Amino acid sequence: MRLHLSLKAGRILGCIIILLFIGAIVFCNMILCKSSKYVTPENEVNYRQYIFIPYGEEEKSLGHIGSQSYAYGPGSFAVSVDGSVYVLDSFNRKIKRYTAGGGFMYSVALPDKQGGVDFEIKDGTIYLLCNDSGIYTMSPGDKVWTRQGYSQLKHLAGMFTANGEVYLRSWESGSLQLSSPNGLIFSEAEASPLKGESLESDLFYSCVLRSAGEESYVLLQETLNQKRPYSELRVIKYKGDEIKETALAAPLEYYIYSNPFKKLYLTQSGDVYQLVPAENGVIIFYVPWFAGEKTRITEKLIEENRAK
After folding, report:
1. Of 12, 61, 110, 167, which sits most exposed with the smallest number of CB within 10 A?
2. Which residues contact 157 (CB under 8 A, 6 or more apart)?
3. Average pLDDT of the chain, as a whole number
4. Half-sphere exposure for 67 (CA within 13 Å, toward CB)
5. What H or E segment, with its residue span, contains residue 107?
6. Where exactly are the structural domains of the chain?
7. Is the peptide bond before 229 cis (omega within 30 degrees of 0)?
8. Which of helix, strand or coil describes residue 120?
């Protein structure tokens, strides 16, 4: 009887020791995570592939064609709530839809004489931002709204919602703004994350992807002294002025750096996907979230590039 009790007590004690050991590891990882904002290849997670779309009979390029066509790929993409993927094939002037397994479903031609800049999906309807700065649904002649005399919209648009809102960066005032069919709206929630902030490297591009209440998602692209190929894309989740999480895109040397928002997509549920053009197709990855502020641009890397 005593032997049975001692064995039982030993098992309980062993379980307690194991739990304490696991708790200590988790606590140490939390301390390490909070102690440094720098993410290195040694401590970052793997980027999991979500979908691969091979070039085939229907989709031979999925984007611009040139000596380095793999560096361009689709002009923009979106991941629907059902897991299917839409891509903007700007070369063939179509939006194409694929299953979550990469199978081709169908394509929709762009409006006559219009080139697509960006698009969004809501309840199965495609809303397209065109070269004339107007937003169209894909049904013929049904224009949602147009901002006349604001030609820069197509260059600054970060992402627009299906109700006609466009999130963009105002270079003149240095603040983040929200544009809508009813005019330009300034909000402290959108303006506060970057206003007056001193960045360690060169801010190449920024835009608000979405904002609701105190919560906002901001996309940043930074370079080292405007030098390529090193450029970092990340999505930062704010609650007010506080950085809650950072989605750090995988580094790619062959990125085309104009309009970087087209290479990342933020879903309504807060998941981030990254489009990676390749020579034989297009890959879309899940982008992991890190707690707090994270970056690969270390102080050492900044100093090394400034010395060149």
Report:
1. 12
2. 117, 118, 129, 166, 167, 168, 207
3. 66
4. 0
5. strand 104-109
6. 49-306
7. yes
8. strand
Strand-strand pairing, 272-277 and 264-266: antiparallel
Residue type, 210: R
Q: Give the Cα separation of 233 and 249 in Å (integer).
A: 6
pLDDT of residue 18: 60
In whole angstroms, give the CA distance from residue 108 to residue 138. Answer: 8
As a residue count, the chain comes to 308
Residue bearing tokens 């809303």:
127
User: DSSP 3-state assignment of 63?
Assistant: coil
Q: What is the pTM of this model?
A: 0.70
CB neighbours of 231 closer than 8 A, spacing ≥ 6? 204, 221, 222, 223, 255, 257, 260
Q: Which of 65-74, 126-135, 185-194, 221-230 has the lowest mean pLDDT?
A: 185-194
User: Sheet containing 166-170: which strands, arranged edge to edge?
Assistant: 157-160, 166-170, 175-180, 183-185
CB 175 within 8 A of CB 191: yes
Among 270, 275, 224, which residue's Cα sits nearest to residue 249?
A: 275
- The amino acid present at 306, given as its one-letter code, is R
Output phi, psi for 11, to 5 deg. Answer: -65, -45
Sheet of strand 227-239, all strands in order from the earlier edge strand to the far edge: 202-212, 215-224, 227-239, 242-248, 289-291
The DSSP H or E segment spanning 156 is helix 153-156
> What is the pLDDT confidence band of residue 253, given thresholds at 50, 70 and 90?
low
What residue type is assigned to position 166 of the chain?
Answer: V
Q: What is the pLDDT of residues 263-292, one digit of tens each?
A: 788 888 899 999 887 777 788 999 999 999
Q: Residue 82: what residue type?
A: D
206 — phi, psi (to 5°)? -155, 150
CATH of domain 49-306: 2.120.10
Q: How far is CA 307 from the centre of its chain?
A: 31
Q: Are 165 and 129 a contacting pair, CB within 8 Å? A: no
Residue-level pLDDT at 220: 76
